[in-house]
Amino acid sequence: MKSKFGEFLNKCLNLMFPPDIKCIFCGRDVKDFYSRPFCDSCAKDLPFNTGNRCLVCDEPILNEAIVCDNCQKTKHHFKHAFCPFVYDRAVRDAILSYKKNNRRYLALGFAVLIAKYIGENIKNFDLITFVPMTPKKERERSFNQSKLLAEELGKLTNVEVVEVLRKNFDTKAQKELGYVDRMKNLKNTFSVIDKKAIKNKNVLLVDDIITTCSTVDACSAELAKYASSVSVCAVARNKRKTLPVQK
Ligand SMILES: [Zn+2]
Ligand SMILES: [Zn+2]
User: Fold this and answer.
1) CATH number listed for the domain at residues 21-237
2) Residue 247 and residue 239: Cα distance in Å, rounded?
3) What separation in Å is there between the alpha carbon of 30 and the centre of ligand 1?
């Protein structure tokens, strides 16, 4: 828990040294970073996840269905997913650059967008946690991108961030696998290290991208053993290969 003085000091420091207030996609100046961290020029071509989408997993769907085919067939361990963008174009480039080129400052802009997308629903959550990395992987990358996103989201929304999960080992690359094989691949990968923190709580789990839902599902399955409910959020939701590129 942060002290009142700590919060006050943080606000003063932010006033004296404002955080990066440039467009998170192209670096141009923006007027109001905390409500719109991108410029007008980028806005025209950003893949916002605002079309028809699955009520459960937030995946874009082409027809008028309320729940996607996958969610009709598979019962997820999370209640709902919140992803402000489709994983495409400038958003894909920015996320890759955030992770691979160590552009940590993008986390704040991403978190602003996630917080806006979640909106009033944030009141439904008691705490925020994140998809963990193995210590080895975290050392290699030098940071955990989901943890940093969670920390920025926690600061913006005043919801406590707690490290609850551990990743026990690194899994094989999942790219070529479908949902069922991915879930098999992830068996016993994650464990809860702080059961008390989530007991009977409504938990929001943060990841950077949601692709097939297998990673967030494997984490949610562990969290849901103790928590009242689990929902998930990420910067972007992958669209299935069968969907045409959204313009
Ligand atoms: Zn821009
Ligand atoms: Zn779905």
Assistant:
1) 3.40.50
2) 13
3) 8
